[in-house]
Amino acid sequence: MIISDNKFSKEIEDIIKKCFDEKLALVIAGPTASGKTELAYNISEKYNIEIISADSRQIYKYLDIGTAKPSKEILEKLPHHLISIIEPNQRYSAAEFAENAENIISEIFQKNKLPIILGGTGFYIKALFNGLFEGPAADEKIRAELEKNNNDELFAQLQEIDKLTAQKFHKNDRKRIIRALEVYMITGKPISELQLSYTPKISKFKPFYIILDIPRKKLYDAINARADKMLKNGWIEETQEILKNGFNENCPAFEGLGYREIISFLNNRIDFDTLSYKIKLQTRHYAKRQIIWFRHQIK
Q1: What CATH number has the domain bearing residue 223?
Q2: pLDDT, tens only, 125-145
Q3: I want to staple 159 with a disulfide (CB 3.0 to 4.6 A). Which of 27, 70, 82, 166 is the partner?
């Protein structure tokens, strides 16, 4: 079900009851800053629930302000899972999320509570309920070699070995292009060919989706206001502290929105106004991609 606001309604109340009766996992998804968290907390005031975070940034320890994690008070009041579980220099795959989340869903149902999968990382959610091709484990040597190429060079390589996959990516989608090239270099086969022959592991639990798709202007205003608040509340200082604790600026945790820009600001490569502008712009672009994903990928 697609809804245009995060208000608790009779329709949502009926959905909650249906999920309890039929043992359905409720998924509240949608773009960043659309009000997913507020809706979940409104539900928690009336029903016995636990939250499973489907956010690929909130999994990291120490990244609290920049990933908009719930406050300590909220975490103490309402059980949350898969938040702050790994170090900033570690990686966590969609397959790992799917395995962990499935086990947690089972545990929550055993307690006669309703599991709510909450977040905007579409790959995580799809991996959980529909399966997702993961491919071979990462090879750091291969990645290091690929990283030496610029975006145009990487995209040209992908077009040469896998035109089908290249058609799906923008040439600046560096991370996914590198992954596709890495898979080819490890297996000798295009990732598109491997995906076609892959049999996904389907969850034993069925989901009910609530997708928030609020008016675009309202969403963008919320994104801008939240960015201002996060910067005011210490996002820059939080990033600085993580770096001081010995984590490299190229570690996986800093691939999230805003962190590269903050590091550039800390290194005096951009000023504060440019930092603020870039964070807001990139977050709006990300939200637009999320909207497209949830409209067309989640079934």
Answers
A1: 1.10.287.890
A2: 999 998 877 788 889 899 999
A3: 166
HSE at residue 214, side-chain half, CA atoms within 13 A, is 20
The verdict on 150 and 85 lying in the same domain is: no
Residue tagged 């603020």 (tokens): 276
The whole domain housing 42 covers 2-132+202-214
Q: What value does the mean pLDDT take over residues 182-190?
A: 94
DSSP symbols for 259-288 = HHHHHHHHTTSS-HHHHHHHHHHHHHHHHH
**What is the distance between the terminal CA atoms of the chain, rounded to a whole angstrom?**
10
φ and ψ at 19, to 5 degrees?
Answer: -65, -40
- What are the structure tokens assigned to 105, written together? 């869903």
- Confidence (pLDDT) at 298: 62
Question: Residue 145's Cα: distance from chain center in Å?
Answer: 27
Answer whether residue 196 shows pLDDT above 90. no
The SS3 call for residue 51 is strand
Angle at 290 between CA 299 and CA 277, to 5 degrees: 175
- Is the same domain home to 128 and 271? no
